[in-house]
Amino acid sequence: MADLVRKIICDSVDRNGSCKIALAGGTTPHALYKQLAREGVSSDVPWQEVDVFFGDERDVPHDHVESNFRMAQRALLDHVPVSPGRVNPMPADSDDLHGAAERYEQLIRERVPTLPDGIPSFDLILLGMGGDGHTASLFPFTDALAERERLVVSHFVPVLGRRRMTFTFPLINAARNIVALVTGADKAEAISIILGDDEELRADLPFSMIRPTSGEFRLVMDINASRLVEKHA
Asked: For 2-232, CATH number?
């Protein structure tokens, strides 16, 4: 996974002079970030040319233990020579979360090149998946799944009892590279449905809505998450 991330960053900088990435939060990518951080300044990754965004965030301050930004900062960003001015955390602790989501979308529109349809296209969006099939903060049976105009939204997630800020699928699917890292036995059932043939069951899992418009989607799993896949072969 780290090799793939490094290659995408290097290829993007070689081609465009910069790389626009959106990091995932939660627990799964922590080991990936630590692996990238272990190389630090000794690697050939041109971190100075990387612009960092976040695909979703919890409604907490940036220094809160639950903050996706804090996790990525401590595991990765503090250990590589990325410019602080190019790191863009989501303002998910704002008193006006709707307005904060609009401002974050505008920031992305200003800094990320667009496709012909006008939607910004990240060079890389990293994602994970929960056992319920959610990705980023796009949870089952929430209104954000049907969003087609707004690229970043703040919405209430009933199963959590709190608000989240998140990319929507039009922005996710416009990326040049979407890479999802899924680990753990608690994800196996959802993965088996997503890779299976039952379209009705699959429709209830937001992860199945990852459908790149012109880029590539790579799913990286450990043996525990993939243990039921062969049953659908």
From this structure: 3.40.50.1360
